[in-house]
Amino acid sequence: MMGPKTMSRRDWLKLGGVGVAGLSGTSVLALARRGGAAAALEHAGVQEVIHSPTELAQLRMGVFGDHAPADGFDPDAFLFDFDYGDVSRDEAGRTVREYEIVAVDREIEVAPGVWFPAWTYNGRVPGPTLRCTEGDLLRVRFSNAGSHPHTIHFHGTHPPAMDGVFPIVEPGERFTYEFPAKPFGVHPYHCHAIPLKRHIHKGLYGTLIVDPPGGRSPARELVMVMNGFDTNFDGENEVYAVNTAAFYYRTHPIRVGVGEPVRIYLVNLTEFDPINSLHLHAGMFRYYRTGTRPDQYELTDTIMLCQGERGIVELELENPGLHMVHAHQSEFAELGWMSFIDAVPHLAAEDGVPVHRYV
Ligand SMILES: [Cu+2]
Fold first, then answer.
1. How confident is the model at residue 121 (pLDDT cuts 50, 70, 90)?
2. The pTM is what?
3. One domain for residues 150 and 246
4. 332 neighbors 346 (Cβ within 8 angstroms)
5. Is 172 found in the same domain as 85?
6. Residue 241 near residue 69 (C-beta atoms within 8 A)
């Protein structure tokens, strides 16, 4: 009998992604209790379960059908939850933005019944989306209330002493990162303590958006962080998502207006897998790699990002209806990185995600 410890994610794929829960031991029972489809697992013995494609689809719906994370994380709100910090001005008249970030250990629910022992910035994964304008002085007060040493390493240009590699911030210690934000674009931040892949994968990452002076054109703006979770700590991800909650935007499509300008700040913070990808159905988008060159983009419907790569996706959907968005690696899509954008005629700006006008 194949036990949970020896199951690879390929084995779980044969089970239609359901088995990811089993990897965390007792949660397979919690999963099975959620519905008849999943309950079959409890009795069948995992190595004997062979499902037809239709059954697999039903199984996935039964398990992942309506996932609102029970840990309080709201994937809808996260899409446009920009943190501008506490704003003041220094003697030179420069805008200063101050942030408090605390590293804390916390269990998060990455798929229904699948709890992951995360390390977090401010109690959630991804951490807060910090937003500023190029040239603003950022002052990030970091304290480590977690159980392991951590840092915050920001991508972008700044003095090496503020790079978040050194000093290592031990549990109970603090460090303040202070630097002018540049260049404009979209940048990841993450812990840089070793072993690096473990610290990043556990959830210590987020997005820093640096707007160009004067901002970008008005648009419905969203943040999508592609991530994965290794629920049995075998060095492979069993669950994939954008913004942590597997399949969430499949059952809760992201609403935009038909023809409305949409801007997605996209970051790949998937560990273990060298690349991740985004593919849009029934439409094309402009892709600005790293967001640093407004005059250079590619018109495409599929992009590939290495670990730490990021960019800006801009689009206007011509036709109403559900537009599928997912990893073009089918395996990632089947394990959670599957979403919809719903183009709605006459969607009011205040309906759902607000249109962003930077001030
Ligand atoms: Cu760390």
1. very high
2. 0.84
3. no
4. no
5. yes
6. no
